[in-house]
Fold this protein.
Amino acid sequence: MKFTLSWLKDHLETQASLDEITYVLTDLGLEVEGVDNPAAKLAAFTIGKIIQVEKHPDADKLRVCQVETASGVTQIICGAPNAREGITVVVAPPGVYVPGIDTTIGVGKIRGIESYGMMCSEREMELSDEHDGIIELESGEVGQSYAEWLAQNDLERVDPVIEIAITPNRPDALGVRGIARDLAARGLGKLKDRDVAPVPTSFTSDFAVLIDEDTLDGCPIFCGRVIRGVKNDPSPDWLQQALRAIGLRPISFLVDVTNFFTMDRNRPLHVFDADKLSGNLRVHRAQGGEEIAALDEKTYQFSGGQMVISDDTGAQSIAGIMGGADTGCTDDTVNVFVESAYWNPVQIAYAGRALQINSDARYRFERGVDPAFTLEGLEHAVRMIVDHAGGEASQIIQAGAVPNTERAFKLDVERVKSLVGMDIPERMQRSTLTDLGFRLEGDMAHVPSWRPDVMGEADLVEEVARMASLTKLVGKPLARVDLGVPKPMLSLSQTREQTARRMIAALGYNECVTYSFIDRKSADMFGGGADATMLSNPISSEMSHMRPSLLPGLLQAAARNQARGISDMALFEVGPVWHGGEPEDQETLACGILVGHTGPKDVHGTRRAVDIYDAKADVEAVLQALGAPAKVQFQRGLSEWWHPGRSARMALGKTSLAGFGEIHPKVLAALDLKGPVVAFAVHTKNVPVPKSKSATRPALNISDLQVVERDFAFVVDQSVEAITLVNAAKGADKVLIDEVRVFDEFSGGSLAPGLKSLAVTVRLQPKGATLKDADIEAVAEKIVAKVTKATGGSLRG
Amino acid sequence: MDDLREKYLTLISAAADEAALEELRVKAVGKKGEISLHMRSLGKMLPEERQIAGPALNALKDEVNLALNARKSAMADAALEERLKSEWLDVTLPGRQRLAGTIHPISQVWEEVTAIFADMGFSVAEGPQIETDWYNFDALNMPGHHPARAEMDTFYTHRAGGDDRPPHVLRTHTSPVQIRSMEKTGAPMRVICPGRVYRADYDQTHTPMFHQVEGLALDTNISMANLKWCLEEFVKAFFEVDDVELRFRASHFPFTEPSAEVDIRCSWTDGQLKVGEGDDWLEILGSGMVHPKVLAAGGIDAAKYQGFAFGMGIDRIAMLKYGIPDLRAFFDSDLRWLRHYGFAALDKPGLVSGLSR
């Protein structure tokens, strides 16, 4: 909402400065978004008077003037033809920036004679293109600020334009008068009386308006007056200037009048060319399918139930939203019907949204105009039209009646204290509300018709606090819930996510936050892409589906980094994924990827391509940090975006804790990523909760007896998994065997094709007595027997 | 006996290597060594003689042994020194590489905010990001026709044909979590709701996804003055300054009444923000007293309980605190950015050790 200071002063009698006004507007909740003050750049220009003029000895066109200025009599060299004794001028003293010539005035010699400033033309101050000579003022005191003189004598030249943001609850502030009312209630001035005398009825028109019974809830009142014999010339200067100042283009007087009252009073109006209407006007609900060519030169089709204004030939206006092109005013219009109506905000909101029309009328009606002002607004407009464009007005033609919005709420003066925490005397609370237009009867406050937002006691508190200024609010400590040391506040799942995040970062991964929505192709590739997870209004096709996995976002991020010249990296994200389109279909995962090599080439020769054992070590570290049991099952057959032979799920029975492996080469190709890429994903919520709540650890049982380690190498089939061998070996003596560790895998060489050698170290920890050779031999035999049986292999000779 | 002593000490100090030393040891104090033989002869002496010669011989033996050991370790030292001379390494070569991971600023600030509010008794609630329009709008006093709905640039999800429910939305704020929390715990309560939110907007300063933290405190006697104190404490703690001035400006949100926008006093010098000083005001959050209709929607008795709510952008306060210029870069995963603006894994913010280093 834009308005000029002079427009505001049409409604508000005030001595307040522009700065005071803008500060208070923002404080009141009418947030100032910008002020364009032409006077600001004129602040340093002051008024002076030429007392003596002599010709410059060395230049025919220059004059040496003695000028009385704010700082005494000053010598200024001037080339203007009108520079002469006795005139009042505008002076830019040294040091002042003159915008029209983009120069800061200095003290200098002009053809050998010193000059201490400049006398300005309008163009030099960017006030107009006038440059025939320096400004001659009709009044003004020496030393007075020129901006101040302009504000007093020629405000329109320096009229500040103020732009404020209006929150949806304040339709009344969509009119300048509403803004003035708020300022007056704050004590910044007095609201001026702006009533007009209605234009007397000159003739009785037989034109009629009608509201269908089923439309009365959407249009309680529809009224107007016919005016005969108007002359639709361009608007008078003041009106054109007022509209231009706030960014509206003057069109013709009749149209400009409607725009004026829209801005002045938040009262949208419509003027029909009466000669283009056939028969009477009827407000009714559309059957559906009717079409109308609207004022924006587009054609709209109504849906059943939307409100229409029709004449005998069909739809002539989209009720409360936009008029029709066929019956609008033109320069040749002579006879008009000026319409003023009240439309139900909810119905206008839905119709406007469905028709996708963003008009000023819709904007205002859907927020709520003052229903009680329907007739008064009409009288204001008719008065202005007849006064400026001539013509004679009919009686008021009306259907329906002003809807009753009467309601009152109890003013509980203690409530301001208890809800806001401010001490405001009762007398002040009451006067504030009265100034805002509330009518107080006892402790009941009757709400003014222009405030549809006030719907309860809390709203009265808000008005009182707002007017008293929330700036004055003083903070008051919030008592602790429990005295003493605060309890932990995070849930188990929150703690886990943070633990996973910091563990993964500690392992060397860089945390990313990628978008929750990805493109359909990527979603499809990772098991998502279902319509239920699709946005109906994505901002781009790259962000159309909720992600089914964190991998596509991370892989795309890796590809972007590779395009920037970084080939190796470790990225991770902890965040939500979606398995469907319902609120409960969301799961938080922790996912990491390792791309390319372990690092750049280095002197120690440690660089190598990443492989699944890197990912495995990392995922195991994360699971351990989350408190998962050490022993989990490794299940093959992960989803198709993993390498089929190089990936596994880590599970406890049917509960999947994590997955890890190499990303399928086809996926990498599709995402234009140079591999290899290994990854892991952890279902943080699936890690079982520890059974014991106690912080106590089980007792530590250490044996002082000598540990014995023995190595075994077995030749087994290539397909035998190490874990089978390890488990078999461990099973040989569950008491004595402390650990079985694979330390070598080997194939080729002397081994037949299809076979491999797996070597393990078995660590024996005696508990009762030191081991003798015979004991060790006995265990070794059992280990060989168990492993041979479990793997079908043999001890390597 | 002095001759003996002189002889062996000279020989020991002249010994060339360990083998020569061993030979000397055998010769002097070995089983059949010269000194040992002398000691054997003690038995044949007179008691008076023995009383003099015995201790003298023992002392000689000890002295020779000491000399042998000293010479031996001197030799070892010399040998080690010789070896170390050849074991020079270039200490300027790089160490074995180790990846340095980072925490994203959003996660870091999330934990900072959580630490501060947890100390003031707020627990942390999260909720679904695909929401029903009831939780996202209606329950928050924004019925279907409300203009604020249109202003929020809401993302809607697809509805299959035949499913007549209103489409779900991507939550436009974390306020639905407030409603869910009210339903779950009832009043009195204190909770903050951090998380991802979505609005269909993408330009220099907007991304279609960003992060918010909202707070809610309900009790029988909580006022807007408590809200102001709570936010003052938060701003001081978060920006790590001793004092800061907050300015409440009247505003409007459908879910609070009265409502206020909150500005903090600050200065901008060369693009650097300083909180708590200067003549500028920076809008950082929206807040107010929870609207009775919202309380009712959450199943709270609005006649008995009242309280405040506030909301601010996590990304925004992260940008302000850490001087990060561009919001869009938060979600671009440029490794150079992640390394520059990220935090070490061990930099876990807490009130005891401080929020930032």
Q: What stands out?
A: The longest helix of chain B spans residues 47-86.
